[in-house]
Amino acid sequence: MVYAVATVAAALLLATIWLFRRRKKQGRQAGLICLLIAIVLHVALVFCIPLLPKPRGGSHTADPEATEMVGIDEVAFSTFDPEMDDQANSAANDQADIAPLPLSEISDSLVSEIEEMAEPVAEPIAEPVDGSVAENESELLIPSVIPGQLDTPIEPLAAEEIEDMFKSLDADFAKLAQLGTPTPAIKSQTVSARSEQATPSPNPPESVPPSPQSPVPPSTVPPSTVPPSTVTASSIPAPATIAGEVENDFANRVGDAKTRALMQTGGSVQTEAAVAAALKYLASTQRRDGAWDPVSTGAGEERQTLGMNRFGAGSKADTAITGLALLSFMGSGQTHQNGEYANNIYKGLVFLINQQKADGSLAGDAAIYASTYSHGMASLAMAEAAAITQDPSAIESARRAIHYSRRMQHPTTGGWRYTPHDKGDLSQLGWQAMVLVAGDRAGIPASRESMRGVERFLRSVRKGRYGGLASYRPGEATSVTMTAEALATRLLMGEKVRPEEIAEAEQSLLRQKPGSGQDNYYYWYYATVALHQLQSDAWTEWNEAMQKRLLETQLPNGQWPTTSVWGGYGGSIYTTSMATLCLESYYRHSVKKEE
Questions:
Q1: What angle do CA 420, 313, 377 make, to 5 degrees?
Q2: Would you say 28 and 19 are in contact if contact means Cβ atoms under 8 Å apart?
Q3: Distances (CA, A) of 326 to 228, 293, 329, 337, 347
Q4: pLDDT digits over 506-561, tens only?
Q5: Helices 426-441, 480-492: inter-axial angle, 10-degree rounding
Q6: Which fold has domain 83-221+252-588?
Q7: Burial of 416 (0-12, 13-18, 19+ CB in 10 A)
Q8: What residue segments make up the domains of the chain, in order of their start?
Q9: Model's pTM, two decimal places?
């Protein structure tokens, strides 16, 4: 209507000019009438234009089906919104559609401590396929993260701290020995040697994280007024049970179950020390608003990987690397309710919910090549937080994100790519499938239609003599990265993969183990997840190579370098997070038992 009024007003002005140029008196009278009407219409426009809907940020295309979300904005976030103030609202980038999580709960002392830390070095995002992909995979762009050198050096851990860490782990190993659990051989490595290699800066002391009360439907309960420092019994996750004795996919991340899973499936003191160093690095580079910043860590460097210009993809993918960092913290057993890094996780979740759009997208302002990856990585972090803690705010945010993912899916092929209803590629599908699976564990049932679509797409890219290999898109050449991603996705979804398919995939992956060719954290992550589920001889061989390469390349401040295949598009947060997720594989997902 506004555009129609503007058109009529402009037409009347033109008619006025034409009529005034006529010599006849009647023409001038008609022109005066047209002029008056045009003035009235222009005045009306002054009041109507501000009522037009403002365009949202981000690169993804709006989906006409977004009308399904009508009414969702009325839901209030009770857990993350105890004492919201005006400053927190203004910091939410005007995302009024989704009730923002409060930053006001973070004490002034904590803010000042964060300001004194090293300048933000957060980074871009995830990266896609490995260097061995065929040329026709050159379109695959995955926001990655490149490590840049910190302007402010990070102080290494004191030798005493490392020694205490090792003593704690040794005590756990001794406990396992008493239980009769076989302890894997661990290569000798002295504390002093380890402290010289890869120990990151200590995390400054932080106040006790704001902890929500027992979960309750956010739509029916007013914001909590309990002080942020209050920790209730309901806010502390129940201890995990022993590995293999529980259906919960995340049960092995804490307690005795974590120690046993670590030792039974190939972890060591060294891998845990590397994870601890990486988490301290990630904590030290978090921004005040809870995000990890791509730009300050060199994200978006265009290296034309695989011969394609992606225009610096990853430079605006802050939700992606924030999601990856959060996954790294939660993978080690931390949550926003409990643990050493509870405040870091809390602020990260606050940032993501503040960035979530009315249609549920968590892509933020990422460019087209990074947009879907950003949504997938951030959504996976939110869904895991929801599944582990049952926090109502996280559940609601995850529900919106999953709703958006389902509407982005191609209705026929079952895939995802860069814009809604793209035919899809396997690299994008892996993240979205895991979002659906994690959401299901959080009590957000996965649509049967969506899951059938995932299975349909996985079948369409299956290759090889027995179907154990996979390609980026149907009809294209296979690659080890896509083979790893397909196998990991199928196994985590609970699909029964035939032995001959597994053997074919394992042979392919072992021909390109870590340490051969250019480092590719994206490939290593999916191969590690897949082979860990299998616990075969192939896993033992892969794990040895993966550990060796990651432990010898971790930098003294805890990060991993960005010289990997896709490192130019991301930054040190991406590389460090992906490497950390590899070293958390021993307990991050429970091994699925054959029935």
A1: 60
A2: yes
A3: 20, 13, 5, 13, 10
A4: 999 999 999 998 999 999 999 999 999 999 999 999 999 999 999 999 999 999 99
A5: 20
A6: Glycosyltransferase (1.50.10)
A7: buried
A8: 2-51, 83-221+252-588
A9: 0.66
